[in-house]
Amino acid sequence: xxxxxxxxxxxxxxxxxxxxxxxxxxxxxxxxxxxxxxxxxxxxxxxxxxxxxxxxxxxxxxxxxxxxxxxxxxxxxxxxxxxxxxxxxxxxxxxxxxxxxxxxxxxxxxxxxxxxxxxxxxxxxxxxxxxxxxxxxxxxxxxxxxxxxxxxxxxxxxxxxxxxxxxxxxxxxxxxxxxxxxxxxxxxxxxxxxxxxxxxxxxxxxxxxxxxxxxxxxxxxxxxxxxxxxxxxxxxxxxxxxxxxxxxxxxxxxxxxxxxxxxxxxxxxxxxxxxxxxxxxxxxxxxxxxxxxxxxxxxxxxxxxxxxxxxxxxxxxxxxxxxxxxxxxxxxxxxxxxxxxxxxxxxxxxxxxxxxxxxxxxxxxxxxxxxxxxxxxxxxxxxxxxxxxxxxxxxxxxxxxxxxxxxxxxxxxxxxxxxxxxxxxxxxxxxxxxxxxxxxxxxxxxxxxxxxxxxxxxxxxxxxxxxxxxxxxxxxxxxxxxxxxxxxxxxxxxxxxxxxxxxxxxxxxxxxxxxxxxxxxxxxxxxxxxxxxxxxxxxxxxxxxxxxxxxxxxxxxxxxxxxxxxxxxxxxxxxxxx
Length: 578
Description:
The chain has 578 residues and is mainly α.
């Protein structure tokens, strides 16, 4: 298959380039010792771009929390259905489940700043429409859910690009602190946002709360328009939506760290969301309070979250991430059980502070795990997949606990949530969160492609890569172990149909084979390899027993059913990294 695109300019990689890469590695390793010094929680705020957008985001979050109180209370007053009240949380989280993967592809292939701006625009428009509807008196339960869905859709478009941009703005060593700051900032606002929302609703009415929220959504819109930050650009063309989604899903599926974080986050969201989804009903039915009491209890939840966020760096130094996750589940379970049994606002506030501490500790942990396990070329997609699944779990949990509350009782739903959280803590046996003290090394993105005899186009392909090795029997076990690692490395960055074959006539001869759909995909694969991946290549080459370096053959497949005689490009190269 060929395309009408211009030919690709290519040159040969030389041993000098390999030596330079080794020199760069030594320099990076020397500097990494400084990176290992644990930064303080507030260190990323020294970056003016991150600080400006982070602060603007807090203003927007303040408005969102006020709007959440207003929407939840409006739904509780116009609908007698417990399920409809719980579905407010579902409508706020379902868009991330549906749209996040596509938003992640946009974040990795286009300007993240522009993607963030588009998402913020949608939030302003949807919030303005909701305000106008309330002003005109056109409100119904399904209309409320619809506008809530649209506002959350803007957030689903913005959030993966914003999270992925954190690594573009701050130094790698500051990424854990920056991710924690995102939770700390939101939960700091949570201490005053719900209470402020309750005061505004009680004193000035729902319309005032919705109007103020719309104004707060405009603050990050202006900040993103004004701020710019440097993003490393790729010399290769953008991936198609289908290929980009496939690559993101494949990388996520092959990363045990990301899979464990997503699994635990999804289960935690499903089990713990009952605390927030059913809180309006707790206030109305168990505590006999109004919107001010609801806002005050939400503030208690946020207070616990803030204190836990500020202590997060200390927790991470003294406890493993898995132990922190288990403690978070236990704390949220205690909160949910207390809400089911108490009729005191004071006791409920204390329980919610404990639940808030567990909430922010859990989400900070799984969020940092996904960030640190994701190279820059795929971080938007891994974060979006993470968001899609955890928000799907939260939306499903809102529906499940709302249904249990309506069918049986509110107490049963909260007690069931507590039991489910204890099971999530025990799930660490199957899906333990792994420790990673520093970020995944960034791809080198420095690859000199081999010269070929044909005039290849970017979409020419499929490309077949074969590398032949001569391995002595004494080195066979070590070779096979390294090749298993090589298969994993190459498959997660784009290699397909990877196989390893042994010559029956010449048992010392082994052939590694894999394919890429196009020539551009072959180049992209090599651009994604990291310094550690190249190191693995060197270890394999050292086991090669031939006088000359391992020989690589590049071929292009052609269908035998073609009417015209197909071209076949075969190029033999010495000791070249595929």
